[in-house]
Amino acid sequence: MKNIFKHISTSKSHSGQITRSPGPTPFIKRHRLKHEKQRRRGKKKLERARRRELQVFPEKSESSSKKMEITIRPFKISDIDDFMVYGCDERVARLTRWNAFNSKEEALTFLKDFCIPQPFFRSICIDDHSIGYVFVMRGSTEYEKYKAVLGYAVAAEYWGKGIATTAAKMTVRQAFKEFPDLVRLEAFTAVENEASQKVLEKLGFTKEGVLRKYVYIKGANVDSTIFSLLSTDPMP
Length: 236
Ligand SMILES: CC(C)(COP(=O)(O)OP(=O)(O)OC[C@H]1O[C@@H](n2cnc3c(N)ncnc32)[C@H](O)[C@@H]1OP(=O)(O)O)[C@@H](O)C(=O)NCCC(=O)NCCS
Hints:
Layout: E1 10-12, E2 18-20, H1 26-54, E3 59-60, E4 69-74, H2 80-87, H3 90-93, H4 104-115, E5 121-126, E6 129-138, E7 147-154, H5 163-178, E8 184-190, H6 194-202, E9 206-217, E10 220-230
Helix pairs in contact: 2-4
The chain binds coenzyme A.
Coenzyme A binds next to β7, α5 and α6.
């Protein structure tokens, strides 16, 4: 093996201090550069493999969260603590049909028995930490398979940073690819839920109207907007 240190020489200065010769020789620089390049290449390769495996689709989010890398991936049991941050938050659950969870056990059962088995229930992540969810649920019968419902939620501390828009955009593109027979993606929001309607508008969904007393939320039937995006519409 070559001794790469043999070019480093030491000398004594007039003051008696031991000094190194000025910087590494070109050979050492070349060796270090080559090593650094190999290390970077290996890291990129690993990252690509990880993304393929996890079905991660990174995309820079819009507006103020430009530096955050938002990804979507299937949920894991180990997401439970992150999941509880928004799953137990009344502010997040307020305009949805589900109630905020009261215990880790309840949240874990939901994650394990409902979210994970779903064909398309994804965790919205920053640095692989779950900060929300997004799903596409298809009709269950042969006659209803052509349509699906889109839904999402984001932890309150991340609201207003473009995260739901980015994650829903990735989801829509992926869902139409994954389910080639999907013709229509629908979304319902309580009339009061302006933030959610804004997300759908930004994705190019068409507002089709208001369904009166259509959805039961926290003990009352409320009016719901209905939005749709067809497979023939421009993709967001
Ligand atoms: C709806 C929700 C997912 C939006 O997430 P988000 O990451 O904050 O969404 P975005 O930042 O991508 O976009 C929100 C848009 O709504 C706007 N907005 C937020 N609150 C609003 C309000 N009260 N009235 C009007 N617009 C509002 C934001 O300004 C933003 O628009 P802009 O980009 O033009 O400024 C989030 O509020 C949430 O998780 N709510 C609780 C769960 C829920 O309601 N899910 C939807 C069920 S249908």
